[in-house]
Specification:
The chain is 1% helix and 46% strand. The protein is mainly beta. The radius of gyration is 46 Å and the shape is rod-shaped.
């Protein structure tokens, strides 16, 4: 702490720029001892040597009655305000410096009566010829709205926004609002889509603009994350709520991901998610069906095949029928090309994989698999039950095992069953009965678990709804999203195409097309390739599956 004393002025006995030694007292002034200055006291000083001067803070030393002072100049006659070089005749007096004085605003001349904020500088206003607090005036600037906030403020600047009656402080990067009430979650004003969004396969980006507002008026920051974290289907970028989703053009990246949009006021956030789908699938078009002149005969081994199915990658083809009550598996050297199928080998090396299901059903007419190929289902007219099997190796029927799960459809099917099919996610099951002219829908509370199936009275009557009428509905198939349903009728040798306003809900189906494939096909089962470009019709009379282009 600095010690202030009165009327102390002494001659100096030393020269140079270092520590000074005090000599005699100048006439009319006190000595250091008279002023009670002791060793280690900190004082303010002024030194004069000829026309040179130096002011600063000194530390007193006292040894054997001799006073010295270490110098720490704060200002001097030198350009760099360093210690001056003392000559003979230099004097030093202890004093008070300007920085030791607190000035009262009202006592100063030409100073605005507006009190400055703590730490705020004064600047001279030539218009009023007075010193005023530097902008913002009075420490707080007032603006009409958020758009009026100063563009180049200083850190700790304050601003009052009139329309929201709120106070903001600049943190060096952005304006932040003071708020003392309970903070509410931002509200979406332009939310992201709530339904699945299909991405363009040609790489054209989807641009999605979202917007939210904050009840307290805080600025909104938009962020996002995805599941999975780095989706192969697309890259995502964000600029102030404008999201750009740029899809891959590689077929191998096909699939879907979830994009979660977040709007945050810095305290709370509001998040909504959208599923984006990259699919190179093309809906089969029954108005443009043409025969590929490709086929495969399932007899032997099955002389009465009634259902045809394919693995997800199209390298395996399956049939089942009531002649042998056995599911047979064939290998296709070219995916989804039936003309490249392996021939039946009864036993020995290279034997055709197969699995007997006659212990559960004596007249098998229907076959299907779960989406991942780890479950298989058969159904027929003897038990009128859908039986479920587990496959330890996906899509390998030789690894099948009956898990004792089944569901009876006898209450809806009458005397005959022609097909069974599941939705893509396994949350619904469909059974076709040609004696009742219906495609009946069942809801599953556990995906692909037939024991959880419930009939809720939903069905499609093909005899009354189809044109031409379809009195003998046989095989059924879906597009990849469940927005289209297809079924074949061996009475008409026709494939019917239906649009569904609610995915996988047959009660919302409306027929849009019908393709007569000719009397020689006697269609009892149908299937599509995974991209929707190929259609397969099983001829129940010739035991042959025929391949078509459906585009």
């Amino acid at each position: 702490m600095v010690k202030f004393v009165n009327r102390v002025k002494l001659n100096l006995t030393t020269t140079g720029t270092g520590t000074v030694t005090f000599g005699s007292v100048v006439d009319g002034f006190q000595s250091l001892a008279d002023a009670s200055v002791v060793d280690s006291d900190v004082v303010r000083y002024t030194i004069e040597s000829g026309t040179n001067f130096e002011v600063g803070t000194g530390t007193i030393g006292l040894s054997g009655g001799t006073y010295t002072m270490a110098r720490a100049p704060s200002s001097s006659s030198l350009a760099n305000n360093s210690a001056i070089n003392l000559n003979a005749g230099a004097v030093c007096f202890l004093t008070m410096l300007s920085e030791d004085i607190v000035q009262v605003l009202s006592d100063l001349d030409n100073v605005s009566s507006t009190a400055p904020a703590g730490g705020q500088n004064l600047s001279y206003d030539s218009g009023t010829s007075s010193w005023v607090p530097a902008s913002p005036s009075g420490g707080i600037t007032s603006v009409a709205n958020l758009a009026g906030l100063p563009a180049s403020p200083n850190e700790t600047d304050l601003a009052w926004v009139q329309d929201t009656k709120s106070l903001f402080i600049y943190d060096g990067t952005e304006w932040d609002r003071f708020y003392t009430d309970t903070n509410a979650t931002p509200d979406w004003t332009t939310p992201p889509p709530s339904t699945k969004q299909i991405l363009a396969v040609d790489g054209t980006a989807t641009v999605q603009t979202v917007a939210a507002s904050d009840p307290e008026g805080f600025p909104i920051e938009y962020t996002f994350d995805t599941n999975p974290a780095s989706p192969a289907q697309a890259t995502v970028s964000n600029s102030s709520g404008v999201f750009t989703i740029t899809p891959s053009t590689s077929v191998s990246d096909e699939g879907e991901f979830t994009l979660r949009y977040r709007a945050s006021d810095g305290i709370h956030s509001n998040a909504l998610s959208t599923v984006y789908v990259l699919s190179f699938y093309t809906n089969p078009d029954m108005t443009s069906v043409s025969y590929d002149s490709k086929s495969f005969d399932f007899s032997p081994p099955e002389n009465n095949p009634y259902s045809v199915r394919f693995s997800a990658d199209g390298t395996k083809m399956y049939c089942v029928g009531y002649y042998t009550d056995t599911v047979y598996q064939f290998t296709l050297s070219t995916a989804f090309d039936v003309s490249t199928s392996s021939n039946y080998v009864a036993s020995g090396a290279g034997a055709t994989p197969k699995f007997y299901v006659g212990s559960q059903e004596g007249t098998v007419r229907a076959l299907d698999f779960s989406a991942d190929g780890t479950k298989m289902y058969i159904c027929g007219g003897a038990t009128k039950k859908v039986h479920e099997y587990d496959l330890s190796t996906a899509f390998d029927v030789s690894t099948s095992a009956y898990n004792n799960n089944f569901f009876s459809v006898s209450g809806q099917m009458g005397s005959s069953i022609s097909d069974v099919k599941f939705s893509a996610t396994g949350h619904r099951m469909y059974v076709t009965g040609y004696s009742v002219d219906k495609i009946v829908q069942y809801d599953l509370s556990t995906n692909f678990d037939v024991t959880s199936a419930v009939y809720n009275g939903v069905f499609l009557n093909t005899a009354s709804a189809a044109s031409p009428t379809s009195p003998y509905p046989q095989g059924i198939a879906w597009n990849n999203t469940g927005s289209k349903l297809y079924h074949c009728d061996n009475y008409r040798d026709t494939v019917y195409e239906w649009d569904l306003t609610t995915e996988f809900d047959v009660s919302t189906a409306t027929q849009v097309a019908a393709a007569n494939i000719g009397n020689s096909y006697e269609a009892v089962s149908m299937a599509f390739s995974s991209d929707g470009t190929k259609m397969y019709i099983l001829n129940g009379s010739t035991d042959t599956v025929h391949q078509f282009t459906a585009q």
